[in-house]
Amino acid sequence: MTEVLSKTVKMNAENEIARITNEDWKNQAHLQNRIVQPLLTDLYEITMAYAYWKSGKTKDFAIFDLFFRQNPFQGEFTIFAGLEECLKFLQNFHYSDSDIKYLKQTLPSSIEAEFFVFLRQLTVKDVTIYAIQEGSVVFPRVPLMRVEGPLIIVQLLETTLLTLVNYASLMATNAARYRMAAGDNVRLLEFGLRRAQGPDGGLSASKYSYVGGFDGTSNVLAGKMYNIPVNGTHAHAYITSFNDFNELQTKVLIDRNTGQERDLLVLALEWRSKLATIMGSMASEASDGELAALISFAIAFPDGFMALVDTYDVKRSGMLNFCAVALSLNDLGYRAVGIRIDSGDLAYLSRKARETFNNIARTYSIPWFEQLTIVASNDINEETILSLNEQNHKIDCFGIGTHLVTCQRQPALGCVYKLVEINGLPRIKLSQDVGKMTMPGRKGHALIDIMMRSVEPAPEVGEKVLCRHPFQESKRTYVIPTKVEPLYKIYWKDGKVCGPLPSLEEIRDRVRNSLNTLRQDHKRNLNPTPFKVSVSADLYSFIHDLWLQNAPIGELS
Ligand SMILES: Nc1ncnc2c1ncn2[C@@H]1O[C@H](COP(=O)(O)OP(=O)(O)OP(=O)(O)O)[C@@H](O)[C@H]1O
Ligand SMILES: O=P(O)(O)OC[C@H]1O[C@H](OP(=O)(O)OP(=O)(O)O)[C@H](O)[C@@H]1O
Ligand SMILES: O=C(O)c1cccnc1
Ligand SMILES: [Mg+2]
């Protein structure tokens, strides 16, 4: 079934892929959306850079952690995405002459000319980035990336890294949630470009919905840029552009069995009369304009015939016309692909459509008719999918736009970028709410759900480790690890990306695999169990000592 739908666009997809060789692909892989550049940032990063520079902080060495404080969508997990784009940003990082010219015009005239020379020469060769692998399941307050390097430079990276990670991770998480709701046997297509937050939002949505587990996108540029499958059907306009049979410029199709031309209209009208009886409807009720449209589409794509059936009436018109054309195609040796339903009760209509297909398969001994694909679209979201599941829907594929790409249920992930160490000294940003406290210092080794200080030795397999709740003193537990895996890898050092990066497919596989390792109760839609991220005893004391040192002592009078 999954193969069948993709036939609709196989013609396109194969042509595209044939034109983009693997070599081309490799050569293009370093290219990035050209709007991602050093000036894609907040002004305050640059004004701070000047003030740091002016106060002689050019040699200061800083560490920033990039993390979020709360999982999105009232869930208890998040998918980390956007790392590769961050690395591409670093790869191309430099201020151009025109950037400098613009900054000179824009910043106050009091800024010393030397600063612009400094900016022009700035590189990211002294920056080091540690990160969790892209596509991993991550949790609040655990740093997704740690950025080390000269203070001014790592400060200048803040906004761009955040914009590259925030939406990507939100989108991948949203898509992964839709995938979990739909299950593994249903295809998911992203149809959101027209509703996305602008062209770049649309491209990112297509890319990260694929990462999160969608099977393809209708967005052709995303297909070309990221080498992801493109797919699609047709719009109501195609159906309504035909009024009657006279508009059919060509009605003939070559019979695959005989090589002879056959009149598809004549065949389809014969089938429509026959089918009306077994489908319990009247051929006269079905729209002739719709039939003309479907015939013309079938002639254009005889191996990829997919029909939008809800323009007039699914049961009285669309299904009858579709089946008539599909059976005519079958007479000529072609297999239709399926239907799309874009309004009405999607559970009910899909069940009715499947019944009709099964009935025809039995009546005319055409077993593959049972396998015809039923695509559903129209304002679908996670809840709709869960509800349709309960109604025993017979949908094979969801086409999803608005809710997916706009992340309507939660439009932003709150990733932040906080200074945790400066010149070897840990830094803490105090907050009234301990839950929002920045974890200070380097957090090196990680044991599934424990964060430790980098100066601590890694836990050993089989040796008891004390895991503490980061803020609540009494919450502690011993764990004997059976496997210890460092969470962080070095991705950027000495001005270069370290090691080969995973392909988009591999990142997508990691999403699936890491979600599979997460307990079901953390993933359920309603009131999921929070996943506990603990800290080692040493990190606990370190955070709390520092916190006490920095917290002012009040005085009651
Ligand atoms: N069986 C179902 N159970 C739950 N939700 C459904 C079911 N069928 C459709 N929906 C959802 O209900 C909503 C129906 O919206 P609405 O009534 O605006 O659509 P419509 O009138 O059928 O079509 P349109 O206005 O787009 O032509 C959509 O969000 C759709 O995804
Ligand atoms: O519903 P979404 O999840 O956003 O999915 C994409 C929608 O885009 C198309 O509709 P179009 O924009 O042509 O208008 P329509 O809603 O009137 O069908 C398509 O028919 C879907 O309904
Ligand atoms: O191909 C489709 O069916 C499609 C594409 C974008 C939006 N709605 C539908
Ligand atoms: Mg719609």
From TrEMBL:
Protein name in the entry: Nicotinate phosphoribosyltransferase
Domain Nicotinate phosphoribosyltransferase N-terminal, first and last residues per copy: 39-166
Pfam family, one: NAPRTase_C
EC number: 6.3.4.21
TM region(s), chain numbering: none
Principal EC category: ligase
Family: Belongs to the NAPRTase family.
One GO BP: NAD+ biosynthetic process via the salvage pathway
Domain Nicotinate/nicotinamide phosphoribosyltransferase: 337-438
Residues of the Nicotinate phosphoribosyltransferase C-terminal domain: 442-542
Gene Ontology terms, MF aspect: metal ion binding; nicotinate phosphoribosyltransferase activity; transferase activity
Catalytic reactions of this protein: 5-phospho-alpha-D-ribose 1-diphosphate + nicotinate + ATP + H2O = nicotinate beta-D-ribonucleotide + ADP + phosphate + diphosphate
Biological pathway: Cofactor biosynthesis; NAD(+) biosynthesis; nicotinate D-ribonucleotide from nicotinate: step 1/1
Classification via CDD domains: NAPRTase_A (cd01570)
Annotated InterPro entries: Aldolase_TIM, N/Namide_PRibTrfase, NAPRTase_C, NAPRTase_N, Nic_PRibTrfase-Fam, Nic_PRibTrfase_pncB, Nicotinate_pribotase-like_C
Record's comment on post-translational modification: Transiently phosphorylated on a His residue during the reaction cycle. Phosphorylation strongly increases the affinity for substrates and increases the rate of nicotinate D-ribonucleotide production. Dephosphorylation regenerates the low-affinity form of the enzyme, leading to product release.
Protein task: Catalyzes the first step in the biosynthesis of NAD from nicotinic acid, the ATP-dependent synthesis of beta-nicotinate D-ribonucleotide from nicotinate and 5-phospho-D-ribose 1-phosphate. Helps prevent cellular oxidative stress via its role in NAD biosynthesis.
UniProt cofactor(s): Mg(2+); Mn(2+)
Cellular-component GO terms for this entry: cytosol
Keywords, comma-separated and alphabetical: Ligase, Magnesium, Manganese, Metal-binding, Phosphoprotein, Pyridine nucleotide biosynthesis, Transferase
